[in-house]
Amino acid sequence: MEQLQEYKCPCCGGAIAFDPTLQKMKCPYCDTEFEMEALASFDEELKQERPDDMSWETEAGAQWQSGEEEHLRVYLCTSCGGEIVGDETTAATSCPYCENPIVMTGQLSGALKPDYVIPFKLDKRAAVDALKRHYSGKRLLPKVFADQNHIEEVRGIYVPFWLFDADADAQIRYKATRIRHWSDSRYSYTQTSFYNVTRGGTIRYERVPVDGSTKMDDTLMESIEPFDFGDAVDFKTAYLAGYLADKYDVDAKTSEARVNERIRQSTADAFAATVNGYTSVIPENTHVQLRNGQAKYALYPVWLLNTVWNGQKYTFAMNGQTGKFVGDLPMDRGTYNKWFFGILLGVFAAVFAVQYLMWLL
Fold first, then answer.
1. What mean pLDDT is reported for the chain?
2. Would you say the pTM of this structure is higher than 0.85?
3. What is the 3-state secondary structure (H, E, C) of 135-189?
4. Each residue of 280-323: pLDDT tens digit?
5. Domain residue limits at 308
6. Is 350 a domain residue?
7. Count of domains observed in the chain
Protein backbone atom coordinates (compact mmCIF):
# COMPACT_ATOMS: atom_id res chain seq x y z
CA MET A 1 0.00 0.00 0.00
CA GLU A 2 1.38 3.43 -0.94
CA GLN A 3 2.10 5.65 2.05
CA LEU A 4 0.42 9.05 2.06
CA GLN A 5 2.74 12.07 2.04
CA GLU A 6 2.25 14.45 4.97
CA TYR A 7 3.41 18.02 4.50
CA LYS A 8 4.47 20.35 7.29
CA CYS A 9 4.04 24.10 7.05
CA PRO A 10 7.49 25.69 6.51
CA CYS A 11 6.30 28.76 8.44
CA CYS A 12 4.83 27.34 11.65
CA GLY A 13 5.39 23.57 11.42
CA GLY A 14 1.70 22.68 11.43
CA ALA A 15 0.17 19.99 9.23
CA ILE A 16 -1.21 21.43 5.97
CA ALA A 17 -3.82 20.12 3.55
CA PHE A 18 -5.16 20.81 0.07
CA ASP A 19 -7.84 23.52 -0.13
CA PRO A 20 -10.16 22.74 -3.07
CA THR A 21 -11.56 26.28 -3.16
CA LEU A 22 -8.12 27.87 -3.55
CA GLN A 23 -6.63 24.93 -5.45
CA LYS A 24 -3.61 25.33 -3.19
CA MET A 25 -2.16 23.82 -0.03
CA LYS A 26 -3.15 25.84 3.04
CA CYS A 27 -2.07 25.81 6.68
CA PRO A 28 -5.07 25.94 9.05
CA TYR A 29 -2.91 27.34 11.84
CA CYS A 30 -1.25 30.39 10.24
CA ASP A 31 -3.38 30.65 7.05
CA THR A 32 -0.33 30.54 4.79
CA GLU A 33 -1.00 29.37 1.24
CA PHE A 34 1.41 27.32 -0.89
CA GLU A 35 1.60 26.30 -4.52
CA MET A 36 1.85 22.55 -4.88
CA GLU A 37 5.01 22.73 -6.98
CA ALA A 38 6.78 24.97 -4.47
CA LEU A 39 5.85 22.73 -1.56
CA ALA A 40 6.98 19.58 -3.37
CA SER A 41 10.29 21.22 -4.22
CA PHE A 42 10.78 22.25 -0.59
CA ASP A 43 9.99 18.74 0.62
CA GLU A 44 12.50 17.25 -1.82
CA GLU A 45 15.16 19.65 -0.56
CA LEU A 46 14.52 18.56 3.03
CA LYS A 47 15.11 14.94 2.04
CA GLN A 48 18.56 15.85 0.68
CA GLU A 49 19.75 17.47 3.93
CA ARG A 50 22.42 15.64 5.91
CA PRO A 51 24.03 16.13 9.33
CA ASP A 52 27.46 17.72 9.71
CA ASP A 53 30.50 15.61 8.87
CA MET A 54 33.39 17.33 10.63
CA SER A 55 35.78 14.45 11.21
CA TRP A 56 39.55 14.69 10.92
CA GLU A 57 41.97 12.07 9.67
CA THR A 58 45.29 13.57 10.59
CA GLU A 59 48.39 13.27 12.70
CA ALA A 60 50.19 16.31 14.08
CA GLY A 61 53.67 16.78 15.46
CA ALA A 62 56.69 14.55 14.99
CA GLN A 63 58.89 12.34 17.11
CA TRP A 64 62.07 13.80 18.59
CA GLN A 65 65.22 12.75 16.83
CA SER A 66 68.03 11.19 18.82
CA GLY A 67 69.81 13.82 20.92
CA GLU A 68 67.40 16.68 20.11
CA GLU A 69 65.75 16.80 23.51
CA GLU A 70 68.82 16.07 25.63
CA HIS A 71 69.22 19.77 26.52
CA LEU A 72 65.57 20.25 27.45
CA ARG A 73 64.24 19.86 30.97
CA VAL A 74 60.72 19.45 32.30
CA TYR A 75 59.66 21.46 35.34
CA LEU A 76 56.63 20.38 37.34
CA CYS A 77 54.42 22.80 39.27
CA THR A 78 53.30 21.01 42.41
CA SER A 79 50.47 23.53 42.83
CA CYS A 80 48.59 23.52 39.50
CA GLY A 81 50.20 20.42 38.01
CA GLY A 82 51.55 22.23 34.98
CA GLU A 83 54.51 20.77 33.10
CA ILE A 84 56.81 23.51 31.79
CA VAL A 85 59.66 22.87 29.37
CA GLY A 86 62.90 24.88 29.49
CA ASP A 87 66.49 24.48 28.42
CA GLU A 88 69.19 23.13 30.69
CA THR A 89 70.36 26.64 31.65
CA THR A 90 67.01 27.60 33.19
CA ALA A 91 67.48 28.36 36.87
CA ALA A 92 64.97 27.72 39.62
CA THR A 93 61.87 29.62 38.63
CA SER A 94 58.15 29.94 39.35
CA CYS A 95 55.10 28.77 37.45
CA PRO A 96 53.88 31.33 34.91
CA TYR A 97 50.30 30.25 35.58
CA CYS A 98 50.03 30.30 39.38
CA GLU A 99 53.32 31.93 40.47
CA ASN A 100 54.25 29.06 42.81
CA PRO A 101 57.82 27.66 42.76
CA ILE A 102 58.38 24.79 40.32
CA VAL A 103 60.93 22.03 40.53
CA MET A 104 62.87 20.20 37.86
CA THR A 105 61.70 16.62 37.38
CA GLY A 106 63.78 15.32 34.48
CA GLN A 107 64.23 15.29 30.76
CA LEU A 108 61.47 15.70 28.22
CA SER A 109 59.61 12.51 27.36
CA GLY A 110 56.25 11.42 26.03
CA ALA A 111 55.66 14.58 24.00
CA LEU A 112 55.64 15.32 20.30
CA LYS A 113 58.14 17.66 18.74
CA PRO A 114 56.57 20.91 17.47
CA ASP A 115 56.48 21.39 13.71
CA TYR A 116 56.81 25.18 13.89
CA VAL A 117 57.62 28.01 16.26
CA ILE A 118 56.99 31.74 15.98
CA PRO A 119 59.93 33.35 17.80
CA PHE A 120 59.40 36.24 20.19
CA LYS A 121 59.65 39.60 18.42
CA LEU A 122 58.92 41.74 21.50
CA ASP A 123 61.14 41.54 24.56
CA LYS A 124 60.29 41.73 28.24
CA ARG A 125 60.73 45.51 28.36
CA ALA A 126 58.00 45.91 25.71
CA ALA A 127 55.67 43.69 27.77
CA VAL A 128 56.42 45.63 30.98
CA ASP A 129 55.83 48.98 29.23
CA ALA A 130 52.52 47.73 27.82
CA LEU A 131 51.45 46.59 31.26
CA LYS A 132 52.35 49.96 32.78
CA ARG A 133 50.30 51.75 30.14
CA HIS A 134 47.43 49.39 30.88
CA TYR A 135 47.62 50.27 34.59
CA SER A 136 48.19 53.99 34.06
CA GLY A 137 45.45 56.31 35.28
CA LYS A 138 43.43 53.60 37.01
CA ARG A 139 43.11 55.14 40.48
CA LEU A 140 40.98 52.30 41.86
CA LEU A 141 43.56 49.61 41.03
CA PRO A 142 44.90 47.73 44.10
CA LYS A 143 48.46 48.76 44.96
CA VAL A 144 49.83 45.24 44.44
CA PHE A 145 49.06 45.48 40.72
CA ALA A 146 50.97 48.72 40.21
CA ASP A 147 53.95 47.59 42.28
CA GLN A 148 57.15 47.74 40.20
CA ASN A 149 58.48 44.42 41.49
CA HIS A 150 55.22 42.72 40.64
CA ILE A 151 55.17 44.06 37.07
CA GLU A 152 58.69 42.76 36.50
CA GLU A 153 57.42 39.22 37.14
CA VAL A 154 55.89 39.07 33.64
CA ARG A 155 57.24 35.99 31.85
CA GLY A 156 57.66 34.91 28.26
CA ILE A 157 56.23 31.50 27.49
CA TYR A 158 55.69 29.51 24.32
CA VAL A 159 52.09 28.30 24.32
CA PRO A 160 51.32 25.04 22.46
CA PHE A 161 48.85 25.36 19.57
CA TRP A 162 47.35 22.88 17.14
CA LEU A 163 46.91 24.43 13.68
CA PHE A 164 44.16 22.96 11.52
CA ASP A 165 43.78 23.16 7.73
CA ALA A 166 40.65 22.01 5.88
CA ASP A 167 38.23 22.68 3.04
CA ALA A 168 34.71 23.17 4.37
CA ASP A 169 31.87 22.29 1.97
CA ALA A 170 28.71 23.82 3.37
CA GLN A 171 25.00 23.95 2.60
CA ILE A 172 22.83 26.24 4.73
CA ARG A 173 19.07 26.71 4.48
CA TYR A 174 17.39 29.81 5.87
CA LYS A 175 13.78 30.80 6.50
CA ALA A 176 13.47 34.43 5.47
CA THR A 177 10.62 36.93 5.48
CA ARG A 178 9.75 40.22 3.84
CA ILE A 179 7.14 42.33 5.62
CA ARG A 180 5.19 45.08 3.89
CA HIS A 181 2.87 47.57 5.63
CA TRP A 182 0.26 49.86 4.04
CA SER A 183 -3.08 51.40 4.92
CA ASP A 184 -6.16 52.99 3.42
CA SER A 185 -8.87 55.19 4.89
CA ARG A 186 -10.36 52.28 6.83
CA TYR A 187 -7.68 49.69 7.62
CA SER A 188 -3.97 49.10 8.14
CA TYR A 189 -2.51 46.06 6.38
CA THR A 190 0.53 43.85 6.94
CA GLN A 191 1.72 41.35 4.38
CA THR A 192 4.35 38.79 5.33
CA SER A 193 6.01 36.84 2.54
CA PHE A 194 8.03 33.74 3.42
CA TYR A 195 11.07 32.53 1.47
CA ASN A 196 13.20 29.42 1.49
CA VAL A 197 16.78 30.65 0.94
CA THR A 198 19.75 28.34 0.43
CA ARG A 199 23.45 29.01 0.21
CA GLY A 200 26.20 26.58 -0.71
CA GLY A 201 29.90 26.69 -1.36
CA THR A 202 33.41 25.87 -0.16
CA ILE A 203 35.63 27.84 2.18
CA ARG A 204 39.31 27.05 2.62
CA TYR A 205 40.61 27.31 6.19
CA GLU A 206 44.32 27.42 6.94
CA ARG A 207 46.01 27.20 10.30
CA VAL A 208 42.96 27.65 12.51
CA PRO A 209 44.60 27.79 15.98
CA VAL A 210 43.45 25.94 19.08
CA ASP A 211 45.63 26.19 22.17
CA GLY A 212 46.76 22.85 23.54
CA SER A 213 46.92 23.80 27.21
CA THR A 214 44.13 23.43 29.73
CA LYS A 215 45.80 26.12 31.83
CA MET A 216 45.32 28.73 29.10
CA ASP A 217 41.76 29.94 28.66
CA ASP A 218 40.65 29.49 25.03
CA THR A 219 38.87 32.85 25.02
CA LEU A 220 41.98 34.60 26.37
CA MET A 221 44.19 33.11 23.67
CA GLU A 222 41.69 33.94 20.93
CA SER A 223 41.58 37.53 22.22
CA ILE A 224 45.27 38.10 21.41
CA GLU A 225 45.00 36.63 17.92
CA PRO A 226 45.97 36.85 15.17
CA PHE A 227 49.51 35.57 15.02
CA ASP A 228 51.30 36.15 11.72
CA PHE A 229 52.34 32.72 10.50
CA GLY A 230 54.66 34.40 8.00
CA ASP A 231 57.22 34.64 10.82
CA ALA A 232 56.99 30.93 11.66
CA VAL A 233 60.10 28.79 11.26
CA ASP A 234 60.82 25.11 11.61
CA PHE A 235 61.19 24.29 15.29
CA LYS A 236 64.65 24.25 16.83
CA THR A 237 65.37 23.93 20.53
CA ALA A 238 67.56 27.05 20.38
CA TYR A 239 64.42 29.22 20.26
CA LEU A 240 63.57 28.11 23.80
CA ALA A 241 66.73 29.65 25.28
CA GLY A 242 65.70 32.20 27.88
CA TYR A 243 62.02 31.29 27.71
CA LEU A 244 59.70 28.63 29.04
CA ALA A 245 57.43 26.44 26.93
CA ASP A 246 54.20 24.88 28.09
CA LYS A 247 53.97 21.15 27.47
CA TYR A 248 50.63 20.45 25.79
CA ASP A 249 48.08 18.49 27.78
CA VAL A 250 45.30 18.64 25.17
CA ASP A 251 46.10 16.52 22.13
CA ALA A 252 45.05 17.21 18.54
CA LYS A 253 42.19 14.72 18.68
CA THR A 254 40.67 16.38 21.74
CA SER A 255 41.08 19.80 20.11
CA GLU A 256 38.87 18.82 17.19
CA ALA A 257 35.70 19.84 19.04
CA ARG A 258 37.03 23.37 19.49
CA VAL A 259 38.25 23.79 15.91
CA ASN A 260 34.97 22.40 14.57
CA GLU A 261 33.11 25.00 16.60
CA ARG A 262 35.30 27.80 15.19
CA ILE A 263 34.96 26.57 11.60
CA ARG A 264 31.21 26.07 11.91
CA GLN A 265 30.70 29.57 13.32
CA SER A 266 32.99 31.24 10.78
CA THR A 267 31.22 29.44 7.94
CA ALA A 268 27.80 30.44 9.26
CA ASP A 269 28.89 34.09 9.55
CA ALA A 270 30.35 34.13 6.03
CA PHE A 271 27.24 32.62 4.44
CA ALA A 272 24.80 34.75 6.46
CA ALA A 273 26.54 37.91 5.19
CA THR A 274 25.36 37.00 1.66
CA VAL A 275 21.64 36.81 2.56
CA ASN A 276 20.42 40.37 2.15
CA GLY A 277 17.18 42.20 1.42
CA TYR A 278 14.96 40.38 3.92
CA THR A 279 13.19 41.56 7.07
CA SER A 280 14.31 38.50 9.01
CA VAL A 281 16.62 35.58 8.29
CA ILE A 282 16.73 32.46 10.46
CA PRO A 283 19.06 29.51 9.71
CA GLU A 284 17.08 26.28 9.82
CA ASN A 285 19.59 23.68 8.69
CA THR A 286 23.37 23.67 8.37
CA HIS A 287 25.49 20.94 6.81
CA VAL A 288 29.28 21.27 6.92
CA GLN A 289 31.59 18.59 5.54
CA LEU A 290 35.36 18.82 5.91
CA ARG A 291 37.89 17.64 3.34
CA ASN A 292 41.70 17.52 3.26
CA GLY A 293 41.94 17.94 7.03
CA GLN A 294 45.44 18.38 8.39
CA ALA A 295 46.88 19.48 11.72
CA LYS A 296 50.28 20.78 12.73
CA TYR A 297 51.81 21.43 16.13
CA ALA A 298 53.30 24.86 16.81
CA LEU A 299 54.54 27.06 19.66
CA TYR A 300 53.31 30.66 19.79
CA PRO A 301 54.97 33.42 21.89
CA VAL A 302 53.00 34.95 24.77
CA TRP A 303 54.00 37.27 27.62
CA LEU A 304 52.04 36.28 30.70
CA LEU A 305 51.42 37.59 34.21
CA ASN A 306 49.01 36.03 36.70
CA THR A 307 47.96 37.69 39.94
CA VAL A 308 45.60 36.57 42.67
CA TRP A 309 43.60 39.26 44.45
CA ASN A 310 41.03 38.41 47.16
CA GLY A 311 40.97 34.80 46.01
CA GLN A 312 40.32 35.62 42.35
CA LYS A 313 42.81 35.13 39.54
CA TYR A 314 43.60 37.98 37.13
CA THR A 315 45.58 37.38 33.94
CA PHE A 316 47.53 39.72 31.68
CA ALA A 317 48.53 38.24 28.33
CA MET A 318 50.32 39.86 25.42
CA ASN A 319 51.00 38.51 21.97
CA GLY A 320 54.80 38.21 21.90
CA GLN A 321 54.82 38.84 18.15
CA THR A 322 52.35 41.71 17.55
CA GLY A 323 51.98 43.33 20.98
CA LYS A 324 48.20 42.86 21.15
CA PHE A 325 47.19 42.26 24.75
CA VAL A 326 44.28 41.69 27.09
CA GLY A 327 44.10 42.08 30.82
CA ASP A 328 41.32 42.03 33.38
CA LEU A 329 41.71 44.25 36.45
CA PRO A 330 40.15 44.27 39.93
CA MET A 331 38.92 47.29 41.87
CA ASP A 332 40.16 48.17 45.35
CA ARG A 333 36.90 48.41 47.30
CA GLY A 334 38.44 50.49 50.08
CA THR A 335 39.80 53.07 47.64
CA TYR A 336 36.49 53.06 45.79
CA ASN A 337 34.53 53.75 49.00
CA LYS A 338 36.82 56.65 49.87
CA TRP A 339 36.50 58.03 46.34
CA PHE A 340 32.71 57.58 46.24
CA PHE A 341 32.02 59.07 49.64
CA GLY A 342 34.44 61.89 48.90
CA ILE A 343 32.46 62.82 45.81
CA LEU A 344 29.18 62.37 47.69
CA LEU A 345 30.41 64.67 50.47
CA GLY A 346 31.49 67.23 47.87
CA VAL A 347 28.05 67.15 46.24
CA PHE A 348 26.31 67.61 49.62
CA ALA A 349 28.60 70.49 50.44
CA ALA A 350 27.91 72.16 47.10
CA VAL A 351 24.13 71.74 47.49
CA PHE A 352 24.27 73.11 51.04
CA ALA A 353 26.32 76.09 49.89
CA VAL A 354 23.83 76.89 47.11
CA GLN A 355 20.85 76.59 49.45
CA TYR A 356 22.57 78.77 52.06
CA LEU A 357 23.38 81.40 49.42
CA MET A 358 19.78 81.43 48.23
CA TRP A 359 18.61 81.83 51.84
CA LEU A 360 20.90 84.83 52.29
CA LEU A 361 19.58 86.42 49.14
1. 78
2. no
3. HCCCCCCCHHHHCHHHHCCCEEEEEEEEEEEEEEEEEEEEEEEEEEEEECCCCEE
4. 999 988 999 999 999 999 999 999 887 776 777 778 889 999 99
5. 72-166+202-269+290-330
6. no
7. 1
